[in-house]
Amino acid sequence: MTTPVLQAKGLVKVFGRVVGLDSVDLTLHAGEVLAVIGDNGAGKSTLIKCLSGALVPDEGSILVDGAEVQFKRPQDARDAGIETVYQTLAVAPALDIASNLFLAREIRRKGPLGSILRMLDTGEMKRQAADHVKRLGISTLQNINQAVETLSGGQRQAVAVARAGAFGGKVVILDEPTAALGVRETGQVLKLVRDLRDQGLGVILISHNMPNVFEVADRIHIQRLGASAGVITPATHSMEDAVAIMTGARTLDSTAH
């Protein structure tokens, strides 16, 4: 097997008397969609925050391409090629699509105009934004100059995912990307997830929606009470199996087919 693009070993995170993560392992390969599922309080959010630099684990290690890393803040994870799209989309509604794709990564104009006057190269950002959108095959974003506030929920999600796909050199983490979306828009976002995978990125998908998970995931990591309850695949286990393991009704061994 190839070296995992992202790996967590024995992650522990404690909040006072509450154990958020109890020695959790996770492995993600390039060109793979790994779903992370679990009931509320299972440790999904804590796990993702540790992998994205928003939280520092108390114990354990995180490896990117086999090399151990120390994430003290989200920017450290971004610098390592890990982009995260949270459920509360970090988009600027008043700005256009191109400006949102380059939010906090603006391209300045060459020469003194950029270095001294700090003028932005809006033309270059629009050109690159259009390329990113086209490369990801996002047909719902036709006009790169359109303000994000005029977009539908699914289109806004597409903007956030496109930004992650454009700058996430190795891994894209998606937190409930289809929550509050209709059937058609959910389908568009799931297509985006597949497109990211097909481009060789490792994708972590956190979702409560079992049909979505079983539609796009290559493997499914199940969290329960802060610990990992096991990893299954849609080929070897059913949705009923996944829910049973997630709720503790059954163990991974007892669901083996």
Automatic annotation (TrEMBL):
GO terms for molecular function: ATP binding; ATP hydrolysis activity. Residues 6-250 form the ABC transporter domain. The keyword ATP-binding applies. Keywords: ATP-binding, Nucleotide-binding. CDD domains: ABC_Carb_Monos_I (cd03216). It comes from the Bacteria. SUPFAM superfamilies: P-loop containing nucleoside triphosphate hydrolases. This is ABC transporter related.
